[in-house]
């Protein structure tokens, strides 16, 4: 049963980006809100931005850089 | 357009500033002065109370604006004092009659004492500032964040435990059937890592390979997003369950040409809409499997009746009936190319690539509240998968079936070609025009007039030949028609 043909695994992902856009959306929203909060001096905006970046981090794929995550937290 | 843009931007900036300033106004920052000017006409005592309350309002307000407000308030107070004489109460009592003050002696006294000592004004708000009340917003937010982080950690650990429980129960079966279990694609050679590959906090992959009939098998444990609090809350409204998705890629020679699917009715309807191959080859709606002894919850979609007959042997039926609640969908297809691609018109010039695959989607029992023990109940499903692989290899259509299958495939291809016929024509046309243009350019660029003339003549001759050919063709068609 076992034998022949060992193959190199693809480990290819067809389109993870297509299937779950949540982290990207959250990233974008977080940036928008943080800009709003800075410009218009609305504190609640800044808080929502922090929340968004947390959600984006929780949903992100492991293939993305941690550096990017940290910078998005900022 | 540009002017409009600039105009809008110019409007936006002061509007946002005015918004920001309005906040400050609300803090009662300038209200004292403001009110003074406004109400100066009305010799009301209420003016006095109004001036009192804004001061108090200032002190109980929150945030960073407090600091600025206080400073400004203090400044204005200073200004008032500087402007007026050092006699207290004069600044406020100027617009009033003395009579007005009779009933309100205390208040002016209070204001006197306050006005006397600016430092005390500052102290009062400072004291209030230190209390927790003024920070309720921050406390709320931080608590929320903490809750989110806690949930993240708990959810992540639970998913992790579930995945490893699954793997431990299935490890033996997999290792006995596959030479290579678990490979993440980073090593150059194929070595078995024997571990799950974690793609996400809620998705785990496992690639198995090295078996007779199949190229490989990719198992995806798609858990619920327990690490995301929003998702957890959403799930309370709409229950969902973890899923195990298995995709077996078959070798080309090991599977005959057919398309077949079985599963819950809802899943099949959805798949029929989404999947390219199911929508093209299986035209009927999902039929009930009751004919073969399957429970009502399951339905069948297949290309030909013969395929269903062949697939539904005793053991398969046994599997399907016993584990019907865990099965979401099972799809065998030799024309598998994934979900339908949404492409714009004019871009589709080639049929998508197809691979022979078997797809299984199982629901983990427990619908969200799974425990590691539930993973054991999925073990027989894995044996079903292995059995299906062998079966798919053994199953061969008879001659009739094969003819039908080939006809179907030819039909699908033809349809596709027809659809894209227009686009291909246009593409060919544009290519021809390009060639002509290139030719002309070459002729133009030729410096030598002699060569130019010769090239032009050559081009003319070619054109004439083409015309003649066309005429011949037309004549032939006419003759045939006659």
From TrEMBL, chain A:
GO process annotations (BP)? protein insertion into ER membrane
Q: Which GO terms of the cellular component aspect does the record hold?
A: endoplasmic reticulum membrane
Task: Report the superkingdom from the record.
Answer: Eukaryota
Compartments in which it is found: Membrane
Q: Which GO terms describe its molecular function?
A: protein folding chaperone
Q: Which residues cross the membrane?
A: 28-54
Pfam families assigned to the protein according to its UniProt record, in alphabetical order = ASTER (PF03669)
Its keywords, alphabetically, are: Membrane, Transmembrane, Transmembrane helix
Say yes or no: keyword Membrane present: yes
- Protein family: Belongs to the Asterix family.
**What protein am I looking at?**
PAT complex subunit Asterix
The organism is: Illadopsis cleaveri
From TrEMBL, chain B:
Q: Where is the composition biased (Acidic residues)?
A: 60-103
The record's Gene Ontology biological-process terms are:
endoplasmic reticulum calcium ion homeostasis
- For whether the record's keyword set contains 4Fe-4S, the answer is no
A Pfam cross-reference name: CCDC47
Q: Name where it's found.
A: Rough endoplasmic reticulum membrane
Q: Which residues form the signal peptide?
A: 1-20
Ranges annotated as spanning the membrane: none
Please report the record's description of how this protein sits within the membrane.
Answer: Single-pass type I membrane protein
Can you quote a single GO CC term?
rough endoplasmic reticulum membrane
- Basic and acidic residues bias located where? 104-117, 429-471
User: Principal localization?
Assistant: endoplasmic reticulum
Q: Recall the GO molecular function terms of this protein's record.
A: calcium ion binding
User: Could you tell me the keywords of this UniProt record?
Assistant: Membrane, Signal, Transmembrane, Transmembrane helix
The annotated regions of Basic residues compositional bias extend over: 472-482
Cite the residue spans of the region called Disordered. Answer: 45-117, 422-482
Q: Which family does it belong to?
A: Belongs to the CCDC47 family.
What this protein is called in its record is PAT complex subunit CCDC47
Query: Origin organism of this chain?
Result: Illadopsis cleaveri
Gene name per UniProt:
Ccdc47
């Amino acid at each position: 049963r076992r034998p022949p043909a060992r193959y190199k695994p693809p480990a290819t992902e067809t389109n993870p980006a297509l299937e779950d856009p949540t982290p990207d959306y959250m990233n974008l929203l977080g940036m928008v809100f943080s800009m709003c909060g800075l410009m218009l001096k609305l504190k609640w905006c800044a808080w929502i931005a922090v929340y968004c970046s947390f959600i984006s981090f929780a949903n992100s794929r492991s293939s993305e850089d941690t550096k990017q995550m940290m910078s998005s937290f900022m | 357009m540009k002017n409009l843009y600039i105009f809008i931007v110019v409007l936006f900036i002061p509007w946002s500033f005015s918004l920001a300033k309005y906040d400050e106004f609300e803090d009662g920052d300038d209200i004292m002065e403001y009110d003074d000017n406004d109400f100066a006409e009305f010799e009301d005592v209420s003016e006095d109370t109004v001036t009192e309350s804004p001061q108090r309002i200032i002190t109980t307000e929150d945030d960073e604006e407090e600091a600025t407000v206080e400073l400004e308030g203090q400044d204005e107070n200073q200004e008032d004092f500087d402007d007026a004489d050092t006699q207290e109460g004069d600044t406020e009592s100027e617009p009033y009659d003395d009579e007005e003050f009779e009933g309100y002696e205390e208040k002016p006294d209070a204001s006197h004492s306050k006005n006397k000592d600016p430092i005390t004004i500052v102290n009062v708000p400072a004291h209030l500032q230190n209390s927790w009340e003024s920070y309720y917003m921050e406390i709320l937010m931080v608590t929320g964040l903490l809750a989110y982080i806690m949930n993240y950690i708990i959810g992540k650990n639970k998913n992790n435990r579930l995945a490893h429980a699954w793997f431990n129960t299935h490890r033996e079966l997999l290792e006995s059937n596959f030479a290579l279990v678990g490979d993440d694609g980073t090593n150059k050679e194929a070595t078995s890592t024997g571990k799950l590959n974690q793609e996400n906090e809620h998705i785990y992959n496992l690639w198995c390979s090295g078996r007779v009939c199949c190229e490989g098998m990719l198992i995806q444990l798609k858990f619920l997003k327990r690490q995301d609090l929003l998702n957890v809350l959403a799930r309370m409204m709409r229950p969902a369950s973890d899923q195990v998705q298995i995709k077996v890629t078959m070798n080309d020679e090991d599977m005959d040409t057919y398309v077949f699917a079985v599963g819950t009715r809802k899943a099949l309807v959805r798949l029929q809409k989404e999947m390219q191959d199911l929508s093209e080859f299986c035209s009927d709606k999902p039929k009930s499997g009751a004919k073969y002894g399957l429970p009502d919850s399951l339905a069948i979609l297949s290309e030909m009746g013969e395929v269903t007959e062949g697939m539904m042997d005793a053991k398969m039926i046994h599997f399907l009936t016993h584990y019907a609640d865990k099965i979401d969908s099972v799809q065998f297809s030799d024309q598998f190319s994934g979900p339908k691609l949404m492409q714009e018109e004019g871009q589709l010039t080639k049929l998508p690539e197809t691979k022979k695959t078997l797809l299984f989607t199982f629901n983990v029992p427990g619908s969200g509240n799974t425990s590691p023990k539930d993973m054991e109940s999925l073990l027989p499903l894995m044996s079903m998968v292995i059995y299906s692989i062998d079966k798919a290899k053994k199953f061969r259509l008879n001659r009739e079936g094969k003819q039908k299958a080939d006809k179907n495939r030819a039909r699908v291809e033809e349809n596709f070609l027809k659809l894209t016929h227009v686009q291909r024509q246009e593409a060919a046309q544009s290519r021809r025009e390009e060639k002509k243009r290139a030719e002309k350019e070459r002729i133009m660029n030729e410096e030598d007039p002699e060569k130019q003339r010769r090239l032009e003549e050559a081009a003319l001759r070619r054109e004439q030949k083409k015309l003649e050919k066309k005429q011949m063709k037309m004549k032939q068609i006419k003759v045939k028609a006659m």
